[in-house]
User: What shape does this take?
Amino acid sequence: MAVVIDRSKCIYCGACVATCPYLALRLKETYVEVIPEKCTECQLCIKACPVGCISLPGKDNESKR
Amino acid sequence: MEKYDLPLIKNEYDIVIVGAGPAGSLAAREASKRGASVLMIDRRKELGAPVRCGEGLGLKHVTNMGIKLSPQAISANINGARVIAPNLKDDIIIKTPETKGFVLDRKVFDKDLAKDAGRAGAEIAVKCEAYDVIKEGSAVKGIKYIFNGKKGEVKAKVVIAADGAESVIARLAGMRDATSTLYDTDYGFEYEMVNVKLQDNGQDYSDLIEIFFGREWAPRGYNWIFPKGPDSANVGVGIGGLEAPNAIHYLHKWMSADGVKHRFAKAVPVAYKGGAIPVGAPVKEFVMDGFMVVGTAAHQVDPIHGGGIGLAMNAGRIAGTVAAECVKDGKTNAPALNKYKEQWYNEEWKKFSKRLMLRKVLEKLSDDDLNHIISNLDQKDIDLTLAGDFKPVVQKVLLKRPQLLKVLTVLVNL
Assistant: This one.
């Protein structure tokens, strides 16, 4: 499992990329790429995201963030 | 005429710079001026876009860097700052030579700086993404890139990472502390809006940047209105990374508050901007063998207002100069390149360390404290404080708030 980014909401500002200690996220020109095998589900990116567009499927974090 | 084709990336340069923001472009300009062969690459197809910044820049940075701002790069001229208390009523207005500056159009500004680098002789490749660094032992030897669909490798005597808050290049090179931590990072969200009322209380604030403090509105950060024209502004918020739920939530909450909401009654966004703002100390090491990190990638960001452009340009200028000199001397190991860090500390650290301390103090003040302080300061107090003399203000505040003694004493000793 890995975090999922709602691209329709994401402003690709890179805040999550800066915060991911595992370099599991990479900023592209118009989106953020998730590298699932590097994601540890630590959820720091979810806390960092200024617009609340990242979630971890199966975890109840979408309503909170 | 020969057939035009995209610029060819050679196999080797003296210096390769990743990221064409203010830090990267200044480094490229200075290194090229000194005769080094320079390649500057950037992931984006258009330099300066997308903007993720309040776009404020002090006049002194422009003067110090020897930049001529094109009229199109200036959205608004700024004469001062207005700081508003958490009660959204009391304020202080600061106008000094230090607070003179601009709200920029970063799309124009960044591109202008890159053009200056190109004019100085730097090769530039846009839409060229560095996806890995090449290392031999502890030394950085180059980068791997993908450019217009083709993968390639380029060697360099010095790689300069100027890739902004993500700081992916420095982290790939092995600088672990270039990762932004929730504790030491503010997360920002901003609308560029039209139909913003830049007048309030019968006064015109269109030549001021406005900064609103308050735990309720922006915990461990602040809200801002930075004018972008007579009726336009960047309206944003930065909050501490440990705060929930997120920046946009706080921005909307503040924009809906009595005391400010009338200023946005007819406002509509024309752009969304956001990003991570490292507001803690800079990264511990600025260099490795064959490697330098500059600007926001090195967490060289003002701890109080979160501005990074001025610091980035100066770091880029120093790093580019030092890198070119080291190339000329044939010595690009960490001890040689570290002259950049030494010079940066000489020029910036005195002020930077004070502001780190001031941030700690601000974090300890409650909204009630801030309301009290801001409502009690007069112009003379403000002038003294700005001149670096905190004593009279601290004494004045302590008369009514002796419980702040511990927090504020640190200011007196700055």
